[in-house]
Amino acid sequence: MGKIAAFFDIDGTIYREGLITEVFKKIIKYELVEEDKWYNEVRPAFSKWDIRQGDYDTYLLKMIDVYIEATKGLSKEHIEHIARNVINQKGDRVYTFSRDKIKWHKEQGHVVIAISGSPIERVREMAGKYEMDDFRGTIYKADDHGKYTGEIIPMWDSVSKENALMELKEKYDID
């Protein structure tokens, strides 16, 4: 008989909002992206989604486009540093229900895994904070020198998540 696993998304399931927004604020603060990009490109899509007159995917994809552009050529160390800071500062802003369920599953001996469309650096930090057994997130590819290339392997679509689930099912012998 295989093991039991609990899978958690990060944005909106564990964390009460979108961590990508918090990281985006830090990227602006550290001047890795111009503030105008937020106000002119991302914010209009966010504002429409926020009042439920726009589509979340439109907002998310716009933010991802700007994020890819902002991180292209940057060292992974910069983004990993930002991810650590965001989780250290905001990582406790989670739903009580989700935090309790993670704890309960861990106490039962279940495998606890985060699968999120967020960049893997943030997912790794959040999974570590809540002592999860494994994680999967969107991979932003880097070259041999550790600089982001602008290429991604997404984890926000159902096909990618299903593939990750199948891989994790085999890895952990999950029923």
List the helices and strands and how they pair.
Blueprint: E1 5-8, H1 19-29, H2 35-50, H3 56-71, H4 76-90, H5 96-107, E2 111-119, H6 120-129, E3 134-142, E4 148-153, H7 158-172
Parallel strand pairs: 1-2, 2-3
Antiparallel strand pairs: 3-4
Describe this entry's structure for a reader.
The chain has helices at 19-29, 35-50, 56-71, 76-90, 96-107, 120-129, 158-172; strands at 5-8, 111-119, 134-142, 148-153. Strand 3 (134-142) and strand 4 form a beta hairpin. The protein is α/β, with parallel strands linked by helices. Helix 1 crosses helix 4 (76-90), helix 2 (35-50) runs antiparallel to helix 3 and helix 4 packs parallel to helix 6 (120-129).
Features:
175 residues; Rossmann fold; four-stranded mixed β-sheet; 54% helix; globular
H/E order of the elements?
A: EHHHHHEHEEH
Largest sheet strand order? 1-2-3-4
Strand content: 15-25%
How does CATH name the architecture?
3-Layer(aba) Sandwich
Helix and strand composition category: alpha/beta
The overall number of domains is: 1
- Helix coverage percent of residues? 40-55%
Terminal CA distance:
7 Å
Global geometry: globular
Compute the CA-based radius of gyration: 17 Å
Query: Mean of residue pLDDT?
Result: 89
CATH superfamily caption: HAD superfamily/HAD-like
Low-confidence stretches: none
